[in-house]
Amino acid sequence: MENVIQVKNVEKNYKNFRLAVPKLAIPKGFATALIGENGAGKTTLINILAGTRLDYKGELCFFGRYSDADREKPESGVREAIGYTGPGCYYLPHWNIKQVGEVSELLFENFRPERYGRLLAELGLVGEGNPGSGKKVSELSDGNRMKLMLAGVLARDTKLLILDEPASPLDPLMRDKLCEMIREYLADGGGERSVLFSTHNISDMENVTDYAVIMEHGAVVEQGFVEDLKEKYVLVKGEREDAEMARKILYSMTENRYGFEGICLAEKLDGLAGMDVCTETPNLFQISVAVMRENTSLQFH
User: Fold this and answer.
1) What phi and psi values does residue 139 have, to the nearest 5 degrees?
2) Within 10 A of 63 (CB to CB), how many other CB atoms are there?
């Protein structure tokens, strides 16, 4: 399997936080979700990979051949091949929607104005067939600013999208639209395009997630193709009287007045023999929460 990004011994130290990723590979041709609670290190890692943060140690490899040093050389074409959106908005507040397109066309050789206009209309930012000048960036809601950034980055011919929390400011319907746009981006690339996005909205983004990377305390604590993770972990439900014994075997568990529910490693299922339990295939949200609970510093009762 080819990788679009390879990470080796990447470190970034802050006063009270340390990102340390000895090894990580983002598979080519798929949508990869970077998952973790606030402060887990997702944005720091995203910024390093996107090149918006350069003060780190370690090695990066893009598209199987380019280093992070190559990424900073215009002649390599690496930055042209990568599209990035981050939190907030990097467009100047006094620009209007038309000016955003004009500036993007100056900055990126692979920017397609006609595609930008079509995406603006598709996302409801301008009237169909009549882009006009549009509102100023400062007049847009958080959700519409994200739509504008998505239109700008998807109007370019890229091979990799790196999106930091693209779903957070979006309403449920637009999150569904975002998933559709990511699927179309990948499908149109014939296996040559990849997407890496961080998210807190695991359930909304699960249907577009092929590969998941879960982080806690600046480290990667789990990763894999979603279908493989659903074989590695099993959702278990049982009666309250078995909860105490099951707790010793389950990876994570919650109780209520009627019984218990938890995630078990498939390899440990035999330890539940003799208990009145049923098993199901967990979804990515359930797996992610279980892994995060196992590694978090939060205290649960």
Assistant:
1) -90, -5
2) 22
Q: What is the pLDDT of residues 34-82, one digit of tens each?
A: 999 998 999 999 999 999 999 999 999 999 999 999 999 999 999 999 9
164, 85 contact by CB (below 8 A): yes
Specify the pLDDT at position 167. 94
Which of 3.20.20.70, 3.50.50.60, 3.90.180.10, 3.40.50.300 would CATH assign to domain 3-217? Answer: 3.40.50.300
The token pair at 108 is 């990126």
Quote the strand ranges of the chain, DSSP E. Answer: 3-13, 18-27, 31-35, 57-62, 66-67, 82-85, 160-164, 194-199, 211-216, 219-225, 233-239, 252-255, 259-265, 277-280
Q: 196, 202, 172: which is closest to 291 by C-alpha? A: 202
